[in-house]
Task: inverse folding
């Protein structure tokens, strides 16, 4: 029998072979995935192609019949292929010259966009820019410098890198091994009775799931991959890796679907949490492309006059006809008013606390209820599990079975949640609440409300204590946060800073207000009062708002449809003709542009319709990137001699390289027919391209890249560095 | 002046128009080398200089020569339509303004009526002033015996051919014989004053009526003068031919008398009146054997060629007969002659006839007309400096070899040297040069004798193709493989352009500054390119030109992206995700920008998606969404109520087959709209329309 190698070496060999096997598997798996994606893409492309072909066949255009234009002379010319082997005939085919097609300029692919799109900084270089086939010395130096700017290059540590996933699989695979090996060893050494072994193995097998494998494995791995740490560290890591799967399955902060069968009875803020946090009040969208953080609703600003009380009973069975109902309602009205006042106070208090300042909305409510009802605080459960309130309310909703007949009817979790949500809006207007809930009548709602009012003092959610943050896989907004926070406004220079809605409930907008510091007006998105001194009042124009008579035009702002009510900016949503000429960017009233090879260089933008002087032509759209990112990207673009960077303000740059619209092809000229202007459009800086003179149909568009009307905006990488020194 | 390598070196001899090198003619002065004061230069230097000169100007000149010829054959535009050439246009705008189609008919009818009147109601009165023959006739002769010649007037009627006739039947009706004074002294008061003393003759109107069975094709007057023993004779046109064929045994031929003959057409073949009231002088010709008029197809041109005497010379010394022609309605009274207006077609016809029997009247008319038009133009362009009419000399100074050398040529007229176009005004000439010959740069310099025009090569001439781009870029498979009518790319040339024109002034041709050059943008704009799709760089077929790919606010990738972004959240439940995705797509599609649009946005969302919401069981999530919007102070409770009610209605409708939902839903929406419109419309119709519009816009907003 061959002498078995020493265990350590044997283990090392095993580790290596297992590792190789796993990597191989991974590669295959990845290849399969890629193949599957490729195939599905192919299908998509084929579908699209057949659609396009169908369209083409409807165009009454025939394709060129082959070789018809060649004539007899051309067909006579034969192309032959000879092989040196005997028995193979010379193959010949008539030559068919194809007609030349005029070449078009070079273009990198890009995605169409009609609105700016904010992207995060890229700390990893996605690919090493291609500098031509010959790598020149200066290029090499440039590349080295470039890579230094980034944390790394994508796919750098491919070889020898052992990911957590592979590590775990490796340990598991080796664990199987070890059983078997131990067996063999023992067999060889002691030749113990086999039955015992079988039993032992069975036990071991069953226990492998939870058991930590032997140290031998970790020692072997540690010796193979020394940079991954010692044996103990690896063991710890493995233990950690065993943990998470259970957590992943049930995200802790996810409120169950209200329409789903597992809806739970939760507090109002929790029900609305996703909607509140993800909704962008500026874009009216959830998780918008432009604004990294969204302020949660400013609850205390809600117009109170709107909440009208229905004093008339809604029907014969209305709760108002019940005894004591009116009194209850009135009493609660008072209470809710007090309640709102107190909440405001609480919010202010809370703002002073740095920990919760970042997320004022959802925590505000919860804290209020906690602090406001402090006498009952002792009863509130402090452990994290309190989310699911009582076991009875966890029972699945059965809509069909639930009949409104039983007055003391069982309330499903969804209904209870809905009641709390609506109660925050409609207060004691139980008729409306009942109508909106749909499955309960107002009497039932009333009874529940009475019960709630009592329960209200008893256990409350403290879900708000942990600041809930909507998390997304592989996405971090931190980079953006720092980017915008870093710009320290300098009052002395004529700079333009990005607008951020201000939120400082404890004091009015004074010199400490971020809007004031950045020399921006407060917008409707700010949390300050409508009467704030720093608010822009809008215009009262009755004309076109295209002269400096219009305060909006003078302030290089587009008319705000919620402020300027007389100029027409707030009307005629469906027509392209608006009396106000100062709202073209927000409405996207661009001109039809065409793409053709430029008379100057590369591609050019051409206008299809004639325009008057100072008329809006198009918005210069692209990715919104930080100045730092622009510096990094600009270095590559400068090398390519083609840059689509456009400075927006001191914090951000518009980069139309990857995403943009057709105006990105407009070339630079010192004697242009267009000019660019950065305009404040409803809180966002946007770049408008306007006609410098009247432009005729079919003319190519040019604008001066360097000097836009807003002089403060500087060309990335050139003037800015000078400015800093 | 225009350089041409192979042209004859010396200018000055007449060249037929249209031939190459024609500009050398027409009074251009031969180039004077370099500067006028230079002494006799070396021959070689001159040659080298000329070589340089040719190098610079030959190519563009050849091109413009070619274009000139092409434009003559197939004109692209007429010069007279150009604003600065408007004086070439003889038509008056005033006339055009009042013109109507009906007037055309009226005019023709009136014309015919006139003719009829002439033909039927008027007599032709001829009063002979005298017979003049200077050179051939010794004055002594006339003194002793011949103070007069005998004149015979015949009215020749050429009738329509009848079937049996070989040629046109001709009838000669003697109108009368008169003694006409020979070489009377018209300057003497005795001769000039007595109009009535001259012999006169009347052709009655009845003669011009259709006679016998023959319809008369044309009438002409034949004057035959016989003077003693020296017979003259000539006859014109087919009359003579006919005569020679038919009346071989003519007595006037046989008796060997000297007979002079002339013929004038009174009514031509189309029964147009050719002779109007006026004084006429007719050149008489000898009827000789050498007369080549035996050819049936002889025309005035061939006759002209055979004459050894130029036509005008005939009037100077040839035998001529002067008479006054008058159409009178009454026999005795000459003053009441009908005033016949010259007809529109008359001028050209008269010109054609003028070589033979020449009348004076049209000449007068032409002169008058030019005077009139000149008046008009001087009035229209008061700012044009009045050009010295008599002698305007234009010096062309050619600058070449980097403006280091120059040659000067001068010419006396205002013809364009490249296209021989008569511009007639200095301003027009300059404007024409500038606009039609952009390969050169022309600068005007005032000159005491007229004008100096500096000519140099336009270095920045843009000769780019301005035609249909589809032809150049030749998309294979498009132009030649049409299957039925196919939309072509529209090529725009601005044909009607009314730019703000400054008052014409010669100063605009002075050496221009840079700022001015900018103004001279080409007026041929338009979409004369091949455009490409921005997504695929594929050429755009013409039928796609009106489609703007940027009209959609939500490109597909962005829709996918927003859905994916929301899907990526780990702590948002499926119901919330679904609502958020739907709402995002809704907002992206409609591009809402104002807070106060949100109420409507929510209602519209409900309308569009309620079936989907019901089907996907998203009712409560939607309610949460609405309440959240309310928390953001974007919608009011009424909107929540309305939206939920709409959803409720859809849910109850859902008990019926779910498939029909969407169609049903749309119907409902439409009817709802209609209903709204109707209710708004009803009260308004009785009231004023403004109210109605207001209410309309309220509905739309």
Result:
């Amino acid at each position: 029998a061959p002498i078995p190698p020493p265990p350590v070496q044997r283990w090392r060999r095993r580790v290596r072979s297992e590792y190789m096997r796993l990597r191989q598997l991974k590669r295959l798996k990845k290849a399969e995935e890629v193949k599957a994606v490729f195939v599905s893409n192919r299908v998509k492309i084929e579908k699209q192609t057949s659609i396009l072909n169908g369209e083409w066949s409807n165009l009454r255009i025939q394709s060129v019949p082959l070789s018809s234009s060649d004539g007899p002379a051309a067909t006579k010319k034969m192309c032959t292929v000879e092989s040196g082997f005997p028995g193979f005939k010379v193959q010949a085919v008539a030559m068919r010259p194809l007609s030349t097609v005029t070449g078009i300029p070079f273009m990198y692919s890009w995605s169409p966009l009609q609105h700016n799109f904010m992207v995060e900084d890229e700390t990893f270089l996605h690919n090493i820019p291609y500098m031509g086939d010959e790598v020149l010395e200066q290029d090499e130096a440039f590349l080295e410098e470039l890579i230094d700017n980034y944390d790394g290059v994508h796919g750098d540590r491919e070889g020898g890198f052992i990911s957590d996933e592979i590590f775990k699989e490796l340990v598991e695979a080796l664990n199987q091994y070890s059983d078997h090996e131990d067996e063999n060893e023992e067999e060889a050494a002691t030749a113990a009775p086999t039955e015992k072994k079988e039993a032992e193995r069975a036990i071991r097998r069953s226990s492998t799931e939870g058991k930590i494998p032997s140290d031998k494995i970790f020692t072997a791995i540690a010796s193979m991959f020394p940079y991954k740490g010692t044996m103990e560290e690896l063991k710890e890591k493995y233990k950690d890796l065993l943990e998470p799967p259970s957590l992943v399955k049930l995200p802790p902060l996810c409120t169950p679907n209200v329409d789903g069968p597992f809806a739970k009875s939760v507090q109002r803020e929790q029900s609305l949490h996703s909607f509140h946090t993800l909704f962008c009040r500026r874009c009216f969208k959830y998780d918008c492309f432009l604004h990294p953080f969204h302020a949660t609703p400013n609850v205390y600003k809600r117009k109170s006059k709107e909440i009208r009380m229905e004093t008339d009973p809604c029907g014969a069975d209305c709760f108002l006809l019940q005894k004591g109902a009116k009194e209850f309602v009135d009493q609660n009205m008072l209470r809710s008013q007090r309640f709102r006042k107190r909440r405001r106070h609480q919010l202010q208090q809370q703002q002073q606390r740095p920990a919760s300042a970042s997320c004022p909305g959802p925590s505000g409510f919860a804290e209020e209820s906690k602090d406001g009802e402090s006498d009952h605080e002792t009863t509130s459960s402090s452990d994290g599990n309190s989310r699911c309130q009582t076991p009875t309310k966890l029972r699945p909703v059965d809509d069909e079975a639930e009949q409104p007949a039983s007055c003391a009817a069982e309330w499903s979790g969804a209904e209870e949640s809905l009641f709390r949500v609506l109660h925050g809006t409609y207060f004691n207007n139980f008729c409306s609440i009942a109508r909106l809930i749909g499955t309960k009548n107002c009497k039932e709602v009333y009874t529940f409300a009475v019960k709630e009012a009592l329960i209200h003092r008893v256990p409350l959610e403290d879900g708000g204590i942990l600041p809930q943050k909507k998390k997304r896989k592989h996405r971090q907004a931190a980079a953006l946060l720092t980017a915008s926070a870093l710009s320290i406004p300098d009052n002395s220079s004529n700079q333009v800073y990005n607008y951020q809605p201000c939120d400082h409930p404890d004091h009015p907008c004074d010199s400490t207000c971020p809007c004031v510091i950045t020399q921006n007006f407060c917008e409707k998105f700010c949390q300050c009062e409508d009467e704030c001194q720093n608010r822009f009042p809008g215009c009262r124009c009755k004309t076109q708002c295209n002269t400096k008579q219009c305060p909006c035009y003078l302030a290089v702002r587009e008319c705000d449809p919620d402020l300027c009510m007389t100029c027409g900016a707030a009307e005629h949503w469906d027509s392209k003709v608006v009396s106000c000429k100062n709202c073209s960017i927000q409405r996207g009233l661009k001109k039809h542009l065409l793409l053709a090879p430029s008379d100057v260089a590369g591609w050019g933008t051409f206008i299809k319709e004639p325009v008057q002087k100072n008329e809006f032509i198009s918005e210069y759209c692209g990715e919104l990137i930080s100045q730092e990112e622009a510096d990094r990207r600009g270095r590559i673009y400068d090398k390519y001699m083609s840059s689509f960077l456009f400075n927006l303000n001191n914090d951000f740059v518009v980069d139309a390289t990857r995403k943009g619209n057709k105006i990105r092809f407009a070339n630079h000229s010192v004697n242009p027919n267009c000019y660019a202007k950065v305009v404040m459009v409803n809180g966002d800086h946007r770049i408008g391209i306007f006609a410098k003179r009247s432009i005729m149909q079919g003319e190519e568009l040019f604008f001066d890249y360097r000097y836009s009307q807003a002089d403060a905006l500087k060309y990335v990488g050139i003037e800015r560095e000078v400015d800093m020194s | 002046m225009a350089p041409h390598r192979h042209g004859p070196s010396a200018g000055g001899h007449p060249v037929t128009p249209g031939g190459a090198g024609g500009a050398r003619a027409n009074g251009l002065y031969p180039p004077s080398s370099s500067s006028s004061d230079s002494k006799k230069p070396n021959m070689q230097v001159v040659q080298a200089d000329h070589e340089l000169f040719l190098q610079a100007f030959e190519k563009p000149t050849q091109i413009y020569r070619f274009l000139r010829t092409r434009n003559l054959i197939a004109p692209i535009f007429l010069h007279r339509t150009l604003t600065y050439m408007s004086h070439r246009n003889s038509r008056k705008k005033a006339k055009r303004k009042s013109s109507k189609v009906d007037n055309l008919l009226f005019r023709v009818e009136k014309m015919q009526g006139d003719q009829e009147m002439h033909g039927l109601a008027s007599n032709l009165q001829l009063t002979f002033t005298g017979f003049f023959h200077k050179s051939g006739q010794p004055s002594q002769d006339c003194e002793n015996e011949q103070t007069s010649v005998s004149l015979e007037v015949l009215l020749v009627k050429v009738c329509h051919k009848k079937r049996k006739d070989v040629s046109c039947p001709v009838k000669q009706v003697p109108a009368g014989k008169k003694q006409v004074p020979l070489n009377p002294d018209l300057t003497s008061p005795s001769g000039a004053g007595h109009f009535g003393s001259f012999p006169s003759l009347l052709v009655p109107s009845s003669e011009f009526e259709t006679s016998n069975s023959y319809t008369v094709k044309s009438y002409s007057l034949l004057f035959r003068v016989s003077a003693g023993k020296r017979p003259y004779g000539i006859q014109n046109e087919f009359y003579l031919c006919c005569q020679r064929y038919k009346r071989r045994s003519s007595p006037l031929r046989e008796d060997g008398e000297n007979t002079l003959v002339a013929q004038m057409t009174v009514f031509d073949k189309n029964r147009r009146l050719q002779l109007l009231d006026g004084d006429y002088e007719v050149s008489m010709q000898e009827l000789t054997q050498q007369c080549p008029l035996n050819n049936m197809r002889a025309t005035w041109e061939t006759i002209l060629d055979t004459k050894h005497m130029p036509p005008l010379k005939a009037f100077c010394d040839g035998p001529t007969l002067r008479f006054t022609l008058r159409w009178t309605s009454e026999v005795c009274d000459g003053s009441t002659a009908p005033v016949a207006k010259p007809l529109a077609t008359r001028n050209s016809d008269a010109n054609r006839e003028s070589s033979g029997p020449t009348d004076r009247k049209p000449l007068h008319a032409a002169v008058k007309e030019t005077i009139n038009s000149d008046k008009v133009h001087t009035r229209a362009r008061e700012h044009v400096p009045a050009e010295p009419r008599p002698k305007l000399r234009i010096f062309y100074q050619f600058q070449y070899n980097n403006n280091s050398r120059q040659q000067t040529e001068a010419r006396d007229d205002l013809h364009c040297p490249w296209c021989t176009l008569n511009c007639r005004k200095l301003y027009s000439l300059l404007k024409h040069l500038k606009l039609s010959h952009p390969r050169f740069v022309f600068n005007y310099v005032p000159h005491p004798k007229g004008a100096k025009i500096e000519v140099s090569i336009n270095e920045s001439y843009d000769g780019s193709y301005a035609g249909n781009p589809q032809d150049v870029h030749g998309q294979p498979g498009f132009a030649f493989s049409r299957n039925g009518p196919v939309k072509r790319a529209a090529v725009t040339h601005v044909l009607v352009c009314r730019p703000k024109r400054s008052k014409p002034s010669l100063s605009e041709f002075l050496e221009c500054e840079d700022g001015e050059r900018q103004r001279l943008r080409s007026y041929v704009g338009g979409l004369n390119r091949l455009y490409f799709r921005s997504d695929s760089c594929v050429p755009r077929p013409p039928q796609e030109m009106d489609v703007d790919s940027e009209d959609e606010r939500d490109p597909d990738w962005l829709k996918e992206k927003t859905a994916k972004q929301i899907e990526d959240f780990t702590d948002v439940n499926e119901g919330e995700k679904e609502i958020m995705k739907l709402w995002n797509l809704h907002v992206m599609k409609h591009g809402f920008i104002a807070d106060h649009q949100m109420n409507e946005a929510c209602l519209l969302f409900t309308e569009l998606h309620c079936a989907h919401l019901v089907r996907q069981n998203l009712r409560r999530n939607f309610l949460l969404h609405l309440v959240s919007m309310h928390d953001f102070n974007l919608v009011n409770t009424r909107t929540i109520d309305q939206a939920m009610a709409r959803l409720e209605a859809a849910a109850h409708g859902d008990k019926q087959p779910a498939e029909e939902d969407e169609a049903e839903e749309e119907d409902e929406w439409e009817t709802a709209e209609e209903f709204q419109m109707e209710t708004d419309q009803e009260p308004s119709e009785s009231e004023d329309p403004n109210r109605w519009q207001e209410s309309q816009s309220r509905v739309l907003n």
Q: What stands out?
A: Chain B touches chain A through 92 residues (CB under 8 Å). Chain B has a mean pLDDT of 65.
